Amino acid sequence: MWETEPFEIQVSELENFPWIEDAAPILSFIRVWKQDNPRGTIQDYLDWLAVFDLQDEIREDDTRLKLISCHGAKGLQWKTVILIGCNEGIIPSKQSIESGEDIQICNERNLMYVACTRAEDHLILAVRPEEKTDDKGKVYKNPVSRFIGEMK
């Protein structure tokens, strides 16, 4: 299963995708992260990336990798977009789910739509494994976002 393979194998598999020219900056960024986190897994990287905000450091140079929030992507487009964190509790957020207010869920659905439509050629929706067990045997549920199931 892909999410259990060693990080190096996962990155090397990414290098074989036909659209890799567009994603070369992403792979370079991953390799730099891996040097700083030699024991890190792809899931560790995605967890780190989910909370890391480079928005203040983004340059106007279109050849560079851009890490942008869904809000920050509004009105922009790229050949390849990778949308991470497509799990319940992230999009829609835990707060929106717990509020029980349809308007909050609807707003997040619209936000995901905006993020997905930023891709001109390729859209990659990244999700965590639906279930993960930690070292102590505790099981964490990470269901895929309901919004993915609604896509046609």
TrEMBL record:
SUPFAM superfamilies: P-loop containing nucleoside triphosphate hydrolases (SSF52540). PANTHER family: ATP-DEPENDENT DNA HELICASE SRS2, UVRD / RECB / PCRA DNA HELICASE FAMILY MEMBER. Keywords: ATP-binding, Helicase, Hydrolase, Nucleotide-binding. GO terms for molecular function: 3'-5' DNA helicase activity; ATP binding; DNA binding; hydrolase activity. Residues 37-126 form the UvrD-like helicase C-terminal domain. The keyword Nucleotide-binding applies. It comes from viral metagenome. This is Putative helicase. The keyword ATP-binding applies. Coiled coil: none annotated. GO terms for biological process: recombinational repair. Pfam families: UvrD_C.
